[in-house]
Amino acid sequence: MHIPTHFKQQDWHQVSTLVSEYPLACISTVSEAGLVADHVPLLLAKNADDNWCLQGHIARIHPLAKRLLKPLAALVVFQGEDAYVSPNYYPSKQSNPKVVPTWNYQAVHINGTMTTQDDLAWKLSLLQRLTEQNERAQSQPWQVSDAPDKFIEQLNKAIIGFEISIDSWQAQFKQSQNHSVENQLGVAKGLANTNPLMAKQIECFAQNLASKG
C-alpha cells in the first residue's frame, strides 16, 4: 500500500482500535486458481505465545478450509471510515481554485501466516469472545449460552477456526492532514451530516494542530 507521509499511521493503539471497531476483514490468499479474497469478521487477540494475532472461523465446507491443511500466507485488510471530499468544503477555494476532489479513508494492512485451529474448546472460546465484542453495543447483549447447548455443539463441529500471525502491518489514516487547519475544519463541517464520525476525527485533529501552531 502506497502511504504518503502525511497519512502514515504508526500508532499501534489507533490501529488496534480500528481493527476492533471494524472487524470485518478482507483476507487475500493465493490458490491454485490465483488470488482469492474472503470476507470474515476477525478478533484481535493474544495467542499462546502472548503475541498479537487475528482469530476467526469459517464453515468446514468453505474452499479455504481445504487449503488450510497447510499454513497459508495471507494479506488481511481492514477498512474504517471513508468519505468523499468535495472541493466545495475547502474555504481556500474562494481565493485559490486549484483544488480537486479526493477521498478520505482509514485502512490497515496486516501480513501474516494463517493456520488452522480445530480444537472444540478453542473454537467455543472464539465464538464467545467474538460475540461479546460484536454484541457490546446492544442494550441486552446476546450470549452464546442463550442458544441450546446441542445446537452450539453442532455448529461448532461444522466450522474450523484459524489464527493469523501478525508478521508486519501498515496503516493509512487519510483525514485531510495535507491541508491547512482552515480547510480541515471546512471538511469536518462538510462531512458533519454524511459522516459525523470522520468529521469529528478531522475536527479534533485540526484543533490539536491549531493548538500546537
From TrEMBL:
Transmembrane segments annotated in the record for this chain: none
Residues making up the signal peptide according to the UniProt record: none
PANTHER family (UniProt xref): PROTEASE SYNTHASE AND SPORULATION PROTEIN PAI 2
A Pfam family it matches: FMN_bind_2
Gene source species: Agarivorans albus MKT 106
Protein's recorded name: Negative transcriptional regulator
